[in-house]
Write a structure and sequence with these properties.
The complex is a heterodimer of chains A (293) and B (253). With 293 residues, chain A is mostly helical. Chain A folds into 2 domains: 56 residues, no CATH class; 222 residues, MetI-like fold, CATH 1.10.3720. Helices cover 77% and strands 0% of the residues of chain A. Chain A is built from 11 helices and no strands. In chain A, helix 3 crosses helix 11 and helix 4 packs across helix 6. By secondary structure, chain B is an alpha/beta fold. Chain B has one domain: 3-Layer(aba) Sandwich (Rossmann fold). In chain B, 36% of the residues lie in helices and 23% in strands. In chain B, strands 6-7-8-3-9-10 form a 6-stranded mixed sheet, with helices on both faces. In chain B, strands 2-1-4-5 form a 4-stranded antiparallel sheet, covered by helices on one side. The longest helix of chain B is centred in the last third of the chain and has 16 residues. The two termini of chain B are 30 Å apart. Classes of the chains: A mainly alpha (293), B alpha/beta (253).
Chain lengths: 293, 253
């Protein structure tokens, strides 16, 4: 428990703490104050050194002009933002698709019955194939291959891009989910089955919730990774943030729009990254009451 | 208190005015306790009376809110002390054994000797084997913990805690997770350690055993030690109404 601010710390019953405890709290305050100061000082020094090094490189003036031109960045911000809106929509549908598809695959891979052997073989081949294949090749195959079949009416490139993303990322995410499900102790299945829950109910109500919790950081990691890979749908001609930046670059011969797009991707992923850190810290605190080691 | 302990000798453990809160709940509210060398102190009390928290605080697993803890005269509640080397001087056995499932019995027992105390492997294993021989698990040393019964696991955990000669041994309800038939073999080992001169603070629900090995029994209630006495006195003639009530309920259970 941290010391309360103010010089007169009190116990829960209102009596002031002993001189020894007051001394300990003062010592800890001093220690934490000192570590804040040290980290602040070292951050400033290192930041200054990095800045000095970059600014003193021979090509800095040119780089600053073509990558960090505030005027170009501001002019093309609306176009890039509009593109980013497409990225967000693709991400939204792809995430839902991956969640459903990956869960299905994970469940199929964990089925033990011999009846499902062919199904297991198919999903195993699928995960092996799509985890190995570069996303950009999947994008080309889906984006240009499916329309070439000529059986569907014209499909928008962003839709095809979403399908390619779902295909690739489901392969990864299903493996993460499977690892999580297998990490749930077998006694949990026993307990659930002993209550009369069916195999499916056990999976849905007991194993999956615990398994997902165990692999939450890995899942968010995949989500963030997918979020920036959404930018690759630009190769199919969809006008997303990357494509918008590319168009801007071809008009101005200035790379600042790329930097703007890149920063925007960072900005939209940041809250989620912080959220997972917070979630896993909370889960840890809850599962380990007290006990600071 | 045993008359043999010389008055000038430093007690192994001295706790003075220990307070510990969890949020707005006061769990320990002023614990004073002294344990001399070779003494066995048994803490009894209902669940939630603060027994486990007391042990965790002594092992520096909980940051205390007030008071002081001394190990052989050195204040270990001082934030400037080295926590790890202090813990290395205290042996702890948990209710749930907490053996490392990825290590063999022998490696479980020798891990701290080798990695913390810097004993070389051959020597650490020789010592460990002597102990494991003594508790009749010589033929299990290459097995992994999940191949052992609960009683065997807990005895290995005890050996793991004492193999590096800790100055103080903390045993936290070490038989609560065992089935009754296995309790005996674990408690016999504790009695053996007492005979060998270990200094022990343990919590337990086994009143018969407390009566058998304890030099002092302390009864915790509402975060304070309401009664402390030698076992015969405390069990046969409890003074405090809370002690009486607790013992009556334990005996009828």
């Amino acid at each position: 428990m941290s010391a309360r601010p103010g010089s007169l710390a009190r116990n829960l019953d209102g009596t002031p703490v002993s001189a020894v405890e007051a001394g300990r709290r003062a010592f800890r305050r001093k220690q934490s104050g000192r570590s804040v100061l040290i980290s602040l000082a070292s951050t400033i020094v290192i930041g200054f050194l990095v800045w000095l090094t970059v600014v003193n490189t021979p090509g800095w003036a040119l780089v600053q002009q073509s990558f960090f031109d505030p005027k170009v960045g501001w002019n093309y911000l609306p176009a890039v933002l509009l593109g980013l809106w497409l990225n967000i929509r693709i991400l939204f549908f792809a995430a839902i698709g991956v969640a459903i598809f990956a869960t299905l695959i994970a469940i199929i891979r964990s089925l033990r019955s011999p009846v499902f052997f062919p199904l297991r073989v198919i999903v195993t081949v699928y995960t092996d194939l799509f985890r190995g294949m570069p996303l950009i090749i999947v994008l080309y195959l889906v984006g240009f291959g499916i329309p070439a079949l000529g059986i569907f009416p014209r499909i928008a490139p962003e839709v095809l891009g979403t399908i390619a993303l779902i295909l690739t990322y489901s392969a990864y995410v299903s493996e993460v989910l499977r690892a999580g499900m297998e990490a749930v102790h077998p006694s949990q299945r026993l307990a659930a089955r002993s209550l009369g829950l069916t195999h499916a109910q056990t999976l849905r109500l007991v194993v999956l919730p615990q398994g997902v919790r165990k692999v939450l950081p890995a899942l968010v990691n995949d989500f963030v990774s997918m979020q920036k890979d959404v930018g690759l749908v630009s190769v199919l001609g969809a006008i997303d943030a990357v494509r918008a930046a590319q168009i801007a670059e071809s008009e101005t011969y200035n790379f600042t729009p790329y930097v703007v797009a890149g920063l925007l991707f960072v900005v939209i992923s940041w809250p989620l990254i912080r959220l997972t850190d917070w979630l896993s810290a909370r889960a840890r605190a809850r599962e380990q009451i007290g006990g600071t080691v | 208190m045993s008359a043999a302990s010389a008055p000038e000798r430093e007690p192994v453990l001295r706790v003075a005015g220990l307070y510990k809160n969890f949020g707005d709940t006061a769990v320990l509210r002023g614990i004073d306790l002294t344990i001399d060398q070779h003494q066995v102190v048994v803490a009894i009390g209902a669940s939630g009376s603060g027994k486990s928290t007391l042990l965790k605080s002594i092992n520096l697993l909980e940051r205390i809110d007030d008071g002081q803890i001394f190990l052989k005269g050195e204040e270990i509640s001082d934030p400037r002390i080295n926590v790890d080397s202090t813990r290395a001087r205290i042996g702890v056995v948990f209710q749930q054994f907490n053996l490392f499932p990825h290590l063999s019995v022998l490696d479980n027992v020798t891990l701290a000797s080798r990695k913390v105390h810097g004993v070389d492997r051959a020597e650490a294993e020789a010592t460990a084997l002597q102990w494991l021989e003594r508790i009749g698990l010589r033929d299990k040393v290459r097995d992994y913990p999940d191949r052992l019964s609960g009683g065997q696991q807990q005895r290995v955990a005890i050996i793991r805690a004492i193999v590096s000669n800790p100055e103080l041994l903390l045993l936290d309800e070490i038989t609560s997770a065992l089935d009754p038939l296995l309790v005996g073999e674990v408690l016999d080992l504790v009695a053996e350690l007492k005979a060998a001169g270990s200094t022990i603070l343990m919590t337990t629900h086994e009143m018969q055993f407390a009566r058998r090995v304890a030099d002092q029994v302390i009864f915790l209630h509402g975060g304070v030690i309401v009664e402390q006495a030698p076992p015969a006195e405390l069990f046969d003639n409890p003074q405090h109404p809370a002690t009486k009530e607790y013992l009556a309920r334990v005996h009828t259970a």
